[in-house]
Specification:
Layout (H helix, E strand, L loop, with lengths): L8 H4 L10 H6 L5 E2 L36 H15 L8 E4 L1 H13 L5 E6 L4 H8 L3 E6 L7 H9 L6 E7 L11 H13 L3 E5 L22 E6 H5 L7 E4 L2 H12 L7 H12 L2 H23 L9 E5 L8 H11 L2 E2 L1 E2 L9 E5 L5 H14 L9
Parallel strand pairs: 1-10, 3-4, 3-5, 5-6, 6-7
Antiparallel strand pairs: 2-8, 7-8, 9-12, 11-12
Helix pairs in contact: 3-10, 4-5, 4-9, 6-7, 11-13
């Protein structure tokens, strides 16, 4: 049992810094900085959704708590949105407005994972899911998947190899963070059907649903609504990362339990953030997303071309194998060389067993800044870049 000045062992096992251990260099760097290590956007939120656009005279309860479940008007707008996108017959009892998708996944994990139980996590994976599972005493099991499974049959075979009697859930993200790949409908259908047969919970991370450049996004919940939690993010969809607002959908009976974990952690999502999200849904959000999608596509394709890697199918990331440029210092040395030039990338091990990879976010800063940073990275990787590139 932990004593004062000690932490619980399952919390001690969580990484402190998942995106970069070079924050001190980021703070001290004197020249231009290329902050590719955190997923963000250079774009401001849609028209009418900046904090200065929200007036107390129009929203008298702006500085007060909302109901923990979420603002009634926002919940109703989300019901309409989910029905339109997925065809699901959902009600407000299927939806919880959360402090970002991160909180939504944490609420779900807290409601269904008991200490010692395992969650299979398709890798490379979003870094925080590992720590979220650990927070509740669960054991994250990374399953190398992207680039390994290339058919419905191989997808099932890959996850089956990691199944144990302690397995209770399967986590997947599409479009994928960090690789930018989009899981095909046959693969999603095969994974969901397998999880049904094995009686597993499904955690479907769909925060980049609006940013698919090739193919189409497949929603997991309509395939198995009785066991699937789908998480969505206004942070990623609408450039509101600092607002901390998202939502999660799931089966109504267990959502009552999620509302308990949410109430006893953050109580309610930020009221101004919920108002901004509502204004985006009822106003300029759709047009903003369509414009952003094209800008992101151009940025991703441009970065991929310079770096000589496949262009992303979706999301806002590239996951790059840098093995050929590692010396005796390993990945830490390469990241340090990048940092000396003001370029900060996320280390591969944050995303699973990938000690020779880095992730960059090509929307984290303005396109001209991204291009200059990508050219520096290409030089560090020894890539030949033509003047036309």
């Amino acid at each position: 049992m932990p004593r004062p000045e000690e932490a619980a062992p399952h919390v001690s096992a969580i990484r402190g810094s998942v995106y970069s251990a070079l924050g001190h260099k980021l703070a001290a760097h004197k020249g231009e900085v290329f902050p590719f290590h955190v997923g963000d956007t250079w774009l401001e939120p849609p028209h009418g959704c900046l904090m200065q656009d929200l007036l107390q005279s129009e929203w008298p309860d702006l500085n007060r708590y909302t109901q923990p479940h979420g603002m009634k008007r926002l919940l109703e707008a989300l019901v309409t949105r989910v029905k339109a996108r997925t065809g699901e017959h959902v009600g407000t009892d299927n939806i919880l407005v959360t402090g970002g998708a991160t909180a939504g996944l944490s609420n779900a994990a807290g409601a269904v994972i008991s200490p010692g139980e395992e969650v299979l996590i398709l890798a490379p994976h979003w870094p925080l899911i590992d720590g979220i599972v650990r927070c509740y005493g669960g054991r994250p099991v990374p399953v190398p998947f992207i680039g390994v499974a290339d058919s419905p049959e191989s997808a099932v075979e890959v996850v089956r190899e990691h199944l144990t009697e302690r397995t209770v859930g399967l986590y997947m993200s599409t479009p994928n963070n960090p690789t930018g790949q989009v899981l095909s409908r046959p693969i999603v259908e095969a994974l969901v059907a397998w999880a049904q047969r094995e009686d597993l919970w499904i955690f479907s991370d769909e925060v980049y649903e609006d940013y698919v450049f090739e193919g189409e996004h497949t929603y997991a919940r309509p395939l198995a609504p009785e066991r699937t939690f789908s998480v969505h993010s206004f942070s990623k969809a609408l450039g509101m990362a600092g607002y901390r607002c998202g939502f999660i959908t799931g089966p109504a009976p267990i959502m009552a339990e999620l509302r308990k974990t949410h109430t006893h952690s953050v109580y309610s999502a930020s009221t101004p953030a919920q108002v901004a999200a509502l204004r985006a849904l009822e106003g300029s959000g759709t047009a903003w997303i369509e414009a952003a999608r094209e800008l992101y596509r151009q940025a991703g394709e441009g970065a991929a071309k310079v770096l000589g890697v496949p262009k992303p199918e979706g999301s806002t990331f590239l996951f790059i194998d840098v093995k050929e440029k590692l010396d005796e210092r390993g990945l830490a040395g390469f990241l340090d060389d990048c940092a000396n030039e003001g370029l900060f990338a996320a280390p591969g091990p944050s995303f699973g067993p990938y000690p020779e990879h880095i992730r960059i976010c090509y929307t984290a800063t303005r396109p001209d800044n991204v291009r200059r940073g990508v050219l520096i990275l290409a030089r560090l990787l020894g890539r030949t870049v033509s003047e036309e590139t």
